[in-house]
Amino acid sequence: MDATLRGAPSSIFYPRVMNLGSRIHQAWVVSKPASRSRARLRSDSAPDVDAQAEAERKRLDSEAREAMKVVAEQSQADDRPGAWKWQIRKRVWDLLEAEDIAKMPRPVHHRIPNFQGAELAADKLRKMPVFEDAKCVKVNPDTPQKPVRYMTLRGMKKLLVPQPRLRTGFFSMLDPASMNDRDMREAVTQTGFRKFGKPLGLDAKLKVDLIVIGSVAVDPKTGARLGKGEGFAELEYGMLRFMGAIDDSTLIVTTVHDKQLVDEIQSDKLLIHDVPVDVICTPTQVIFTNTTIPKPTGIYWDRLSPEKLNQIRILQQLKRQIENETGVALTLGPSERLPPTAQRVNQRTSGR
Fold this sequence. Notes:
Largest sheet: 8 strands, mixed
Helix content: 25-40%
Number of helices: 11
Shape: globular
Strand order of the largest sheet: 4-3-2-1-5-8-9-10
Number of strands: 10
Low-confidence stretches: 7-43, 340-352
């Protein structure tokens, strides 16, 4: 995505198209087995396939982080737009490691960092009326927000989780109604998303009452936030706006360590798609930012590079759907250099 600053004309957002066809939804629906024997085969082979898929995901995620490290270093060396963001990220990552605040997976560089006290930060959120009243909560899939995902299910709320990096699909909905505590603890893991989640398409009808998002750094005075630099949280938010599942009034909360609070994020240099936060929960405090930073209103297609689009299948399908229904070709943004994103093992060819 290019360096379009806030204040750019809103006409760059392509308006929501109603009555999406069922093709997108059908792409994520798993067909029923044709016989009991096939179902038994799938069940027996599932643990091995899941283990292979998880090992492959971790390996390729590691490659993606290494490639992102190179991109970050080149951005700072060339003084590119956004280099200042990488400087803040590196300082926070270094600090969390140096003071042993970081928790596994480590090192936390080029991740949404896990931290000591993540459970306490989650508990601060649990006690808030906005969480108590929520019926459906969207939570990012990163490790430090695992306690938030668990307490969401324990609170008998529906949990909406995106596929990591949107690599294999879109969102999955987890309903705690039929889960026991053991199921819930598994359901909040990467493997559990696949096992217990119901895949959703862009034509799904849902209302999200609260969004919980991970951060690398956040400004408590303005609500300005920095993620790990890949832009997937912004795309997830834009798609939920497109679906009508959220609006400007939907609160955005982040759970972070107190050491991730910074004051040098330049709000006037944030991009039009950057997502601010309304509430910050740390292990020691709850902060209402009263942010005045505008929230994105959807997907900014002419800020989306062809390379990023090629990595995300659901966006490719959405683009084709809009173009077919409107007869208007959507203009994409300029090319950019991206690190590779991890792809899961092809489950069909692996016996599932």
